[in-house]
Design brief:
Blueprint lengths: L4 E7 L6 H8 L7 E7 L6 H5 L5 E4 L6 H10 L5 E5 L3 E2 L4 H12 L3 E6 L8 H15 L4 E2 L6 E5 H6 L11 H11 L4 E11 L5 H23 L15 H23 L2 H29 L1 H31 L5
Parallel strand pairs: 1-2, 1-4, 2-3, 6-9
Antiparallel strand pairs: 4-8, 5-9, 6-8, 7-9
Helix pairs in contact: 7-8, 8-11, 9-10, 9-11, 10-11
Length: 332
């Protein structure tokens, strides 16, 4: 018999997607797995929907966040391999078979799968955010410095060794675990050929809020890992794709140069602003071509402006973290 896999799904007010998620998760082409859903004190009718499916339901006593929910699922899991996913993920029928083949062929104990490029929501910000993530993971290569619990696999003995997710972190707890794993020398692989559907809708406000919060939380995790009290013995964090990590400071410098040029109206500030916009364009050309290939030239053109705005928003999150890091002397 194949190794047993425990699929762990946290749920909080996910009535719009949990049914479709479990319909897929409970009908996979694999002979030895279980599905565990951990409810984080939902107030909608998602519990009623969950009970229609052959899965193990665990109810938390207090609303504690995804990290606590995932840890509770892992604690009750009987499989040697844990698969973490979300309540808005549709898992392909053959994904567990492919996952086991990938683990065997690559001697992988930890890996993250990927997203299908096309999504059902066709509004601009849903598509842009989704393709941003697809591009980000595609450029990571075979190994990554962290994981994404949208579709992640890890051997239970390793997960238990690290005592699971940090329950003090409400957002990006998966990034934190990934940094801790790679800091101890574990390799996190990326299986780009195993792709799931992400049923996630973004409005403009949700898009801005998500990237602002996530940039603040992720920069906090990386700073703590590199320089803070939780400094890892081995640094495996690398800057891929480069357009994101260069785009954040370049966009802010370009905006500052533009404001100075408008105020002082001298050649130096105007030339500086133009050069910075040219550099920003060069750095992001590959990303914009990626968007053009999938969604067409008009989408890619519109995305150039949103890309710039997104980098500014992320820079605010990074700046807030840097200030707190300095004030608190690395104790963040």
């Amino acid at each position: 018999m194949s190794e047993k896999i425990s699929i762990i799904i946290p749920n909080y007010n996910s009535s719009e997607t949990i049914g479709e998620c479990l319909e897929a998760a409970t009908n996979l082409d694999y002979d030895n797995y279980e599905v565990i859903v951990v409810d984080d004190c939902s107030t909608d009718n998602s519990i009623k929907i969950i009970k229609k499916f052959p899965c193990k339901l665990i109810k938390l006593k207090n609303n504690s966040g995804a990290a606590e929910a995932r840890n509770a699922g892992a604690k009750n899991a009987t499989g040697k391999i844990l698969m973490f996913t979300d309540s808005d993920i549709i898992i392909p029928k053959d994904s567990l078979k492919k996952a086991m083949e990938f683990m065997k062929n690559n001697s992988a104990d930890i890996f993250f799968a990927s997203f299908k490029p096309k999504i059902r929501f066709r509004n601009f910000f849903s598509i842009y955010k989704h393709l941003y993530l697809c591009y980000y993971y595609e450029k990571q290569g075979k190994t990554m410095h962290t994981i994404d619990t949208s579709f992640a696999f890890i051997r239970k003995k390793i997960f238990d060794e690290f005592k699971g997710f940090n329950t003090k972190i409400r957002i990006s707890e998966d990034v934190d675990l990934g940094v801790r794993l790679t800091g101890k020398g574990y390799k996190i692989y990326h299986a780009n050929d195993i792709q799931m559907e992400h049923v996630k809708h973004y409005s403009f406000a949700q898009f801005i809020r998500t990237d602002l919060i996530r940039s603040e939380r992720m920069s906090k995790i990386f700073l703590s890992s590199l320089f803070g009290k939780r400094k890892a013995k081995r640094q495996s964090f690398y800057l891929k794709p480069i357009n994101i990590y260069l785009g954040i400071p370049i966009s802010s410098l370009a905006l500052l140069a533009t404001l100075l040029a408008l105020f002082f109206r001298n050649t130096t500030t105007i030339v500086a602003a133009i050069l910075l916009y040219i550099i920003f364009t060069i750095v992001n050309l590959d990303y914009w071509n990626y968007l053009k290939k999938i969604e067409g030239i008009f989408f890619a053109f519109k995305a150039t402006f949103i890309n710039f705005l997104d980098m500014i928003v992320m820079n605010i999150g990074v700046f807030v973290t840097l200030i707190n890091f300095i004030i608190q002397r690395g104790n963040i």
